[in-house]
Amino acid sequence: MASKNENKGTMAFADTIRHYLEKRAEKDVLFAVKFANPSKSVEDCVTYIINEVKKSGCNGFTDDEIFGKAVHYFEESEIEVGNPINCKVVVNHTVELTEEEKEQARHEAMERLCLAEMAKMRKPSQSKPTTEKKTQDVQPSLFDF
Fold it and tell me: Residue 80: is it exposed, middle or buried by C-beta count within 10 angstroms (0-12/13-18/19+)?
């Protein structure tokens, strides 16, 4: 279901749902059996959740409400998923970067900074034109004879 047009927020949402369900399956053997059902997928689960959210008319949900919908999708043998909806999903969790990702981000930031500083140095300096008027050098005389 993932397409080239799918936005990063929706992909992050699907990853968050997948991670939650995998952790739950590790702890709950009965749920693990249902989660392993080959006729179900996380992508369809996300579509189901988005359709349920749209039906509700609400825009904000707690994590527990959304995770509950995900579990419900896998627990029900017959459930209507609905059609995929083109929308943006906001995931409000902190992204944990690996050490490699942090190092890559530092490297890219330093590279951008260096390029910006080099561009400044290459730019010809523009001296401001002087606006002072030249006047005749006249020495005032203290004594007029």
Answer: exposed
* 17 neighbors 93 (Cβ within 8 angstroms): no
Query: How high is the pLDDT of residue 5?
Result: 44
Within 8 A by CB and 6+ apart from 54, the residues are: 85
pLDDT < 50: residue spans in the chain: 1-5, 144-145
Report the pLDDT value the prediction gives residue 71, as an integer from 0 to 100.
97
Domains of the chain, residue spans: 1-115
Q: Which of 97, 121, 92 has the alpha carbon at shortest distance from 109?
A: 97
Q: What is the SS3 assignment for 106?
A: helix
pLDDT (0 to 100) of residue 127: 59
Q: Which parts of 28-62 fold into alpha helices (H)?
A: 29-35, 42-56
